[in-house]
Automatic annotation (TrEMBL):
Position of the signal peptide: none
Transmembrane region(s): none
Protein species of origin: Salvia divinorum (Maria pastora)
Name of this protein: 1-aminocyclopropane-1-carboxylate oxidase 1-like
One Pfam family named in its UniProt record: DIOX_N
Length: 364
């Protein structure tokens, strides 16, 4: 049945997009109610979120200190990552090798970008996905059932590292430095994940899972009616692995055992989660967990998500379940796909609350 408000919604969406100031612009204009295009049908205002602070859940926290040269510690971490990747699809890491000063500066860099005046930010605003830097609000603004309460700066940082002059001046240096650090960490994580799958340490690295990386800088402004909208609707990530840096403002929740669980803030920690493509190549051994972001009325929130996506988006590299993880009793559950095909499908459907993986599943 056609939505009777479709035409007015289309007009509202276009007006919002044409302003090129994002959700931050709405907040700056002094709005006291959430515009209709942001009201999320997934939300049950009566539902009380479960907090992982309760004794019911213990969010996985892994200490990476010594994993490179202490075999006993490494085995313990491999076992813990296997457990977390098969159940939660999420975990946090401490002693990951990235200096705290770099983490702090990266968060500050995002705040500097979004703290610029409208005209300065507008210079980067675009819907052209091929642009080196894409700043806009909601990549799926025109296709999703409702818009999310967030603005984003997106940039492909690897395998071809941008030149500083191609990036916003207020955060170019830290974007480059942070990328170099996260690429090193990503390689190490993929080696541990390979071992957790019972493969040789370099298996996922040799598959080029660690080669390509996109950086998404998210800004979630304070919201006048946080019970009506979300910073990010329920979704799973369209990549192999995501490394997430957040500020101290909580909001990220993971769907675990059919309940929304808060991801606790741990100073200096990074949140890591399995993406759809790793679930695909692991033939469902590892789970790409659904998650969402809540907003609040008191403060804005900042996060930096680094998506490991193999090679370049236009690579012809094919991905399918790893041969060693497939058997007569456990046949391949997915067909082969390229990164471009996967992302095209994922982008076209938007954050509609359904899994992009189901499109590539074979059999029953």
């Amino acid at each position: 049945m056609a939505n009777p408000n479709y035409n007015s919604r289309e007009t509202e969406v276009k007006a919002f997009d044409d302003a090129k100031t994002g959700v931050k612009g709405l907040v700056q204009s002094g709005i006291t109610a959430v515009p209709k295009i942001f009201i999320n049908p997934q939300i049950d205002p009566q539902q009380t979120p479960i907090s992982s602070d309760s004794a019911q859940f213990e969010f996985p926290l892994l200490d990476l200190e010594g994993v490179a040269d202490d075999p006993i510690k490494r085995k313990a971490v491999v076992d813990a990552i296997r457990e977390a990747s098969e159940t939660w699809g999420f975990f946090q890491v401490i002693n990951h090798g990235i200096p705290e000063a770099v983490l702090v500066e990266m968060i500050d860099g995002v705040r500097r970008f979004f703290g610029q005046d409208d005209e300065e930010r507008k210079k980067w605003y675009t819907r052209d996905r091929k642009a080196r830097v894409v700043y806009n609000s909601n990549f799926d603004l025109y296709s999703a059932p409702s818009a999310n309460w967030r603005d984003t700066v997106y940039c492909e940082m690897a395998p071809n590292l941008p030149q500083p002059e191609e990036l916003p001046l207020v955060c170019s240096d830290i974007m480059i430095e942070y990328t170099k650090q996260v690429l090193k960490l990503g390689r190490s994580l993929f080696q541990i994940l390979s071992e957790a799958l019972g493969l040789k340490a370099d298996h996922l690295v040799d598959m080029k899972c660690a080669n390509g990386m996109a950086m998404l800088q998210h800004y979630y402004p304070e919201c006048p009616q946080p019970e009506l909208t979300l910073g990010a609707s329920k979704h799973a990530d369209s990549d192999f692995l995501t490394v997430l840096l957040t500020d101290q403002v909580r909001g990220l929740q993971v769907l675990y055992q059919n309940q929304w669980v808060d991801v606790p803030f741990v100073p200096g920690a990074l949140v890591v989660n399995i993406g759809d493509l790793l679930q695909l190549v692991s033939n469902d051994r590892f789970v790409s967990a659904e998650h969402r972001v809540l907003v609040n009325s008191l403060s804005s929130r900042v996060s930096v998500a680094c998506f490991f996506r193999g090679g370049t988006i236009r690579s012809t590299e094919l991905y399918w379940p790893i041969e060693e993880l497939v058997s007569e009793d456990n046949p391949a559950r997915y067909r082969a796909t390229t990164l471009e095909e996967y992302l095209t499908h994922s982008h076209s459907k938007g954050l509609d609350g359904t899994s992009a993986l189901s499109h590539f599943r074979v059999g029953t």
